[in-house]
Amino acid sequence: MKKLEEYVRSIPDFPEEGIIFRDVTSVLQDADGLHLAIDTMQDLIKDLEFDVVAGPESRGFIFGTPIAYLNNKPFVLIRKKGKLPCETVEKTYDLEYGTATIEMHKDSIKPGQKVLIVDDLIATGGTTEAMCQLIESLGGEVVGIVVLIELAGLEGRKRLESYRVDSAICYPGK
Q: CA distances (Å), 65 to each of 32, 41, 73, 100, in order?
C-alpha cells in the first residue's frame, strides 16, 4: 500500500507562482487513499476524549463526519455566513486580503462539551483559530484539532499553541 503522502497531488505555481498547492481531491478520488486518510486521522486521536466533532465546510465535513461516525459522536457544521437556517453565532476573522465570517447553530454546542475540530488543512491557522473562538463562545472546550495536511512553513501551529494539534501529513514549506 502507498503512503498517505503519495495520494496527495502537488500542483506547482497554483494559485500563484512559487506556491505548491496540496490537492486533497486526489486522496478523495482513490478508495485506498480515502480509507488511509480517515484511518490515519482516527489513529492520531485514539487517546482523546471528546463529546462532539466539529468541522468547517466543505472538506471538514468530508473528513469530520466519518471520524464522528467511528467514535459514535455527533457532528457539528461550521459554515460560511448565511448558510444555516436556525439561530446562529458568528465569528469574523481576518484573511490575507479581507475578512471572512463563519457561523454555527447556537444550540450545536452545549456548555462544557469537549470538542474535536477536524479539517483538511492548517495553513496560517486563522480559520482554525476562529473556529476555536466560536466553539468557546458557546461554552465548549476545544480538546483537539486534527487535520489531514499541515503546511508548517506558514506557521499556523503558532496561532494554535494553546491547543492540541495533530496532522496526518506535515509539509515543511508553504
A: 18, 12, 9, 24
- The structural domains of the chain, with segments of one domain joined by +, span 48-171
Determine the Cα–Cα distance for residues 159 and 92; give it in Å rounded to an integer.
16
Distance of CA 121 to the CA centre of its chain: 6
Annotation: CATH topology of 48-171: Rossmann fold (3.40.50)
**Which strand (E) or helix (H) includes residue 36?**
helix 31-44
* CA dist., res. 51 & res. 113, Å (int): 6
Catalytic residue (one of 22, 59, 79, 157): 59
Tell me the pLDDT of the chain (174 aa) as tens digits.
Answer: 799 999 999 999 998 898 889 999 999 999 999 999 999 999 999 999 999 999 999 999 999 999 999 999 999 999 999 999 999 999 999 887 789 999 999 999 999 999 999 999 999 999 999 999 999 999 999 999 999 999 999 999 999 999 999 999 999 976
90 is catalytic: no
Give catalytic status of residue 79 as yes or no.
no
Q: Considering 17, 87, 96, 161, which one is annotated as catalytic?
A: 96
